[in-house]
Write a structure and sequence with these properties.
Serine Threonine Protein Phosphatase 5, Tetratricopeptide repeat; 32 helices
Length: 578
């Protein structure tokens, strides 16, 4: 007996097995070849890299994003894996780590050149840091890959480029236009760059070519700007007239919005060219569809004031107040209208309601002037004292407003008492010291001017404005020219291209009788800042050299720009009247 070592045999099954044919033994096949690493598109990360990536993942899960990003960018640069570079780019963008995002995005585009998103990220990040020539290469890649290439963004990012950078971008744009001659965004970008460069004729040619392709408000604006800068004002007005006339008020909402924008552009253009009635007509058109638009109401009030129509101006300004739109400006201009009409109490009431915005300080200046003009000294002082208490961050400015009101009335004792007390309480206020110094100059108190400017320089040894002011005053009103020269040269070492400082340098050399040196500096000052005082100085220096014809030419040219300039009229009379 075998016990229970085996299961019982089914007799029927035995018979079936006997009857079944014997299967042939399969023929052995050769084992498949071992795969090579090159057969796979992706290789596994090395163990250490995988560990670092897991650290990054866990850090991200825990919200430790800076650690996660540091690991991702490290592994992206080590492994040069497109997926890791993409992950680093997205996380860096989320964290606003622009420098890291740029590193990872450019790496991503390099290792995966067929990825549109990688090139988009690279282009955007390069534009942010001003690398527009490099950015445009990535935008070109987007276009070549079938994506939408927004070349027009380059035009708007190029406003702050220097001349060399703009030329480089224009060259790149020209190269792309040779490849894609019909690309409207490229044409528009190039036109804007040409406009920024000052080449209005070429910009206009491109604008005209684009308008043949279809209506575009940005191109319309470009053409108007080009025509204006080319002094073709009538042509610009005619073009806007025709463009607006060709559009229908009953068209789609998008087209109506475009028409509104065009009318506003046209209205501003007409206002700038003093076509006030026609500007008013355009604003009134827009007001019909936007009766509570504060900008339009304000523009109409300005036109009415320009036309001395105070009644209409007041209507628009009061409408702004009813709609709660730009109330500070509305109150301020209502005050100015009342002041012009000698309605003092009404003017004061309006000025006091301007609020704490941009108009606050100008309104306080008008309040001080009106009160002081009526002899209401104590009332003015109390008002401004309350304003300083309620607006401590503007205390110095309010003190200077009070001081200026005293200066205008020739009240020397009161202004210096006010400023002395204010500076005693705030001895390091550069603004107050400078104001007292200039006030000293107005009242011919050179001792005060010199003392306060020197105090400013002691407090702030790099205050070039104080150095120049003291240097110029010593030049113009004393014989301490060598001392003045040292101060002015120190100021110019800090601000070498400041036109006022260069004028001071020329003037002190004139006083030192270094006439050729004086002319050299004064010519440069006038080129940087065409000003009547600089022109007067240059003319005097030229006259001293015997160049009397050129001196008179300089004075006459300056007089065309400022025909009522006292300094020019005096110097011309001094040197040319027999």
């Amino acid at each position: 007996m075998y016990g229970c070592t085996a299961a019982p045999v089914d007799p029927q099954a035995s018979k079936q097995e006997e009857a079944a044919p014997v299967a042939e033994k399969p023929i052995a096949k050769a084992p498949p070849p071992k795969p090579k690493a090159s057969d796979y598109p992706v290789e596994p990360f090395p163990k250490d890299s995988m560990y670092q990536l897991l650290v990054a993942e866990v850090a991200g899960y825990r919200g430790e994003y800076d650690l996660a990003l540091d690991k991702y960018i490290e592994m992206a640069e080590e492994t040069r894996d497109a997926g890791v570079a993409a992950r680093a780019t997205r996380l860096a963008n989320y964290l606003k780590r622009q420098d890291v995002a740029l590193r990872s995005a450019t790496l991503w585009a390099e290792v995966e050149p067929g990825n549109i998103e990688a090139h988009r990220h690279s282009a955007e990040l390069l534009m942010r840091v001003g690398e527009l020539e490099k950015a445009i290469l990535h935008m070109e890649a987007v276009k070549n890959l079938g994506g939408l290439a927004n070349f027009d963004v380059f035009a708007y990012r190029a406003a702050n480029l220097d001349d060399a950078q703009r030329e480089g971008l224009l060259t790149a744009m020209g190269r792309l236009l040779e490849r894609y001659p019909g690309d409207e965004q490229l044409m528009f970008s190039k036109a804007v760059l040409l406009e920024q460069k000052g080449d209005m004729a070429q910009a206009l040619d491109l604008a005209n070519a684009l308008l043949k392709k279809g209506e575009n408000i940005n191109v319309v604006i470009l053409k108007v700007n080009a025509l204006r800068d080319l002094n073709r004002t009538d042509e610009a007005i005619g073009f806007l007239d025709d463009t607006i006339a060709g559009m229908s008020e009953t068209d789609t909402a998008v087209r109506r919005d475009t028409l509104k924008r065009l009318r506003l552009i046209y209205a501003r253009f007409l206002f700038e060219t003093k076509e006030l009635n026609r500007a008013k007509e355009q604003y009134e058109f827009v007001l019909l569809t936007a009766p509570n638009d504060g900008d339009i109401l304000f523009a109409l009030s300005l036109i009415a004031m320009e036309q001395d129509n105070d009644t209409e101006a007041r209507e628009y300004l009061n409408q702004m107040i009813r709609w709660n739109l730009r109330i500070g400006e509305a109150r301020y201009y209502l005050g100015s209208i009342a002041e012009k009409n000698a309605e003092v109490e009404l003017a004061l009431r309006e000025y006091k309601q301007v609020g704490r915005g941009y108009e606050f300080l100008p309104a306080q200046a008008h309040i001080a002037s009106l009160m002081l003009g009526q002899g209401r000294i104590a009332e003015m002082q109390e008002h401004l004292s309350n304003m300083r208490a309620n607006n401590p961050e503007r205390a110095d400015q309010l003190t200077m407003i009070e001081g200026q009101a005293f200066v205008e009335q020739g009240m020397q004792d009161q202004v210096f008492e006010l400023l002395d007390n204010a500076i005693a309480a705030n001895a390091e206020s550069v603004d107050l010291l400078y104001f007292r110094a200039m006030t000293g100059q107005k009242f011919e108190r050179m001792d005060i001017l010199e003392r306060d400017l020197k105090q400013i320089i002691d407090l702030n040894p790099d205050n070039a404005d104080a150095m120049n002011a003291l240097g110029y005053t010593l030049t113009d009103q004393t014989d301490r020219h060598e001392e003045a020269l040292v101060l002015i040269e120190k100021a110019l070492a800090i601000k070498p291209d400041e036109a006022a400082f260069i004028d001071s340098l020329g003037w002190v050399h004139y006083r030192l009788k270094n006439f050729e040196e004086a002319v050299l500096h004064l010519r440069r000052a006038l080129s940087l800042f065409p000003n009547d005082e600089v022109a007067a100085h240059l003319g005097e220096a030229l006259w001293a050299l015997g160049n009397t014809v050129e001196a008179q030419k300089v004075w006459q040219e300056a007089l065309k720009q400022t025909p009522e300039s006292e300094i020019l009229l005096k110097v011309i009379e001094k040197f040319t009247v027999n």
